[in-house]
Amino acid sequence: MSSAQPSGNDAGHGDGDLASRLAQTAGEIEALLDALLGDAAQDGEIARPARLLAAMRHGSLGGGKRLRPFLTVETARLFGVAPAQALRAGAAVELVHCYSLVHDDLPAMDDDDTRRGRPTVHKAYDEGTAILAGDTLLTFAFEVLADPATHSSGDVRAALVLLLARASGLGGMAGGQMLDLAAEGRFGAGAAEKLSEVEIRRLQAMKTGALLAASVEIGAVLGGASAGQRTALAAYGRALGAAFQVADDILDVEASPEQLGKATAKDQDKGKATLVSALGLDAAKRERDRLSAEAVAALAGFGAEADVLRAAARFAAERTN
Amino acid sequence: MSSAQPSGNDAGHGDGDLASRLAQTAGEIEALLDALLGDAAQDGEIARPARLLAAMRHGSLGGGKRLRPFLTVETARLFGVAPAQALRAGAAVELVHCYSLVHDDLPAMDDDDTRRGRPTVHKAYDEGTAILAGDTLLTFAFEVLADPATHSSGDVRAALVLLLARASGLGGMAGGQMLDLAAEGRFGAGAAEKLSEVEIRRLQAMKTGALLAASVEIGAVLGGASAGQRTALAAYGRALGAAFQVADDILDVEASPEQLGKATAKDQDKGKATLVSALGLDAAKRERDRLSAEAVAALAGFGAEADVLRAAARFAAERTN
């Protein structure tokens, strides 16, 4: 992915090849984040602290599948949104994703030393800097969305901010991380809590699903989708998000650390509640495939122009890293 | 302050008494934050994690002068903005202020055990919960601003988001905190760095001044201020912010822990760079008073309706806690 070259505004129309589309968007997002985080250095009289900017760049540049901006860009493409605007909105979603990784890796949270084969931000810098880097990546996401360059309509920009904030906050991603820490037995008796299947699904819908679904919905809002289209796309995003998370749980059991660029079997070691532990490996795989098919089915109202999104739902289930 | 009763939409028009206006806005902000953080509990199918909500409430309710929302409300009043809208915008600014306190108090940052005479969030809960509580308070600030209840115009709402994000991020509050940690000698040789007066002023303009100035500017944008009015009010906000910070540094030397509800002489103990250490106590007091007068002078284009803002600039310099 890191070898993909940015290609300006040409987002590869008509190319049904998921892998090349993913690589292209990843390259474009990398270039845009690089430019956005570089541009801030030109802000004039107020000096920007170099250490904090470097930590923000460490936490957001240099890799990842960029699946969330890909979903934003491909959904926006259904409605003919200008690629430059879709990429900005996708970059904002990715900034939120990156902030969450920086904070989740902290010693007080999941305590991870490596991420994508590199030291995590608090390892490369220090805990205080990592906390601030996460904070500023999150803050910057809203700055990018609210900037007129993202869309000419203030109503659309405000709607994007509202959507992203709701998906990321107490009722979404951060709330899901809290439930996850609690399920590990961090508070109270100290023993991992045995969550029901329903509770695990709710936790995952918040922790991972909400932001993935928002990635899709943001593309729909950018494109002025009808209420019906937006509902269908939101259902697609939720099912894809759930499939993605079960696939992640399965990879934690089946993949090697080299494949993932991070430690595996961590979930098991921590007694973490996953659908693999709740349902067993075989049933979890069937559930993953069912959710992937559900995501594809949600796109029934769209034609061949949504084939890349359909392929993305299958990819979310079948990926090997 | 905590005994002040919220009084709905009646924001005390025509009352020039700063203390009663401050108390009234503080009560209204407390009630609004309580309602906003309570409302989220009604969001329907997605459960909100009770521990995280409790930590958010611990970090945002129950005190503080609420100076920032006061500035937003009083500036908005100059332009006849509906109090309910001004209070929502002020609550968003206060949420950012509260998030910054929760994170700054963490062991990896300033390592404070008490705040306003109560345990800090990581002491009352734990570090992971405190990190997430700060994250969600920050995220919620943008949700509140982007909500149509804050203003009917999407352009205005997006402008408010942009303003608050810029004041809070890399070039503003969080960047200032990074410079502050660096000046304490956290990174590198370990010895506190001797900052020049110019560097101290820049650090403080970012760490404290940017959000105080934004509090004022947000009121101006809500009210549809002209470019000239907005420039004057921004200058007022910056000077008030600088006066406020010098006053804070002076209080750290002169006040008792009981007065402040937190430890004092911490700056000196840490060898922290302040204008008191750079200029000496007497010169710092003269500078505080000069900045306060500069803030008042910036309001020359406004009439008696800005008297409360003028009084606030004097209060920022003369406060005893």
Task: Describe the 3D structure.
The structure is a homodimer of 321-residue chains. Chain A has helices at 18-39, 50-60, 67-78, 83-104, 121-124, 127-146, 154-168, 173-183, 197-222, 227-254, 257-260, 266-269, 275-279, 281-298, 307-318; strands spanning 114-115, 118-119. Chain A has 321 residues and is mainly alpha-helical. Chain A has one domain (18-318): Farnesyl Diphosphate Synthase, CATH 1.10.600. In chain A, a hairpin with a 2-residue loop joins strand 1 and strand 2 (118-119). In chain A, helix 7 runs antiparallel to helix 9. Chain A starts with 17 loop residues before the first helix and ends with a helix. The interface between A and B is large, with 61 and 61 residues.
Brief rundown of the structure:
The first copy, chain A, has 321 residues and is mainly α. In chain A, 67% of the residues lie in helices and 1% in strands. Chain A contains 15 helices and two strands.
Q: Secondary-structure map with pairings?
A:
2 copies of one chain form a homodimer.
Chain A: H1 18-39, H2 50-60, H3 67-78, H4 83-104, E1 114-115, E2 118-119, H5 121-124, H6 127-146, H7 154-168, H8 173-183, H9 197-222, H10 227-254, H11 257-260, H12 266-269, H13 275-279, H14 281-298, H15 307-318
Antiparallel strand pairs in A: 1-2
Which term fits the overall shape of chain A? globular
Q: For this entry, what is the oligomeric state of its chains?
A: homodimer
Number of domains of chain A: 1
Biggest β-sheet: strands ordered side by side in the sheet of chain A: 1-2
* CATH homolog superfamily of chain A: Farnesyl Diphosphate Synthase
Helix percent of chain A reads: 55-70%
- Helix-strand pattern of chain A, N to C? HHHHEEHHHHHHHHHHH
Q: How far apart are the first and last residues' alpha carbons of chain A, in Å?
A: 12 Å
Biggest sheet of chain A, open or closed, and with what strands and sense? 2 strands, antiparallel
- Output the structural class of chain A: mainly alpha
Query: Taking Cα atoms only, what radius of gyration of chain A do you get, to the nearest Å?
Result: 19 Å
Largest interface, counted by CB within 8 Å of the partner chain's CB: A-B, 61 and 61 residues
- Mean pLDDT across the residues of chain A is 88
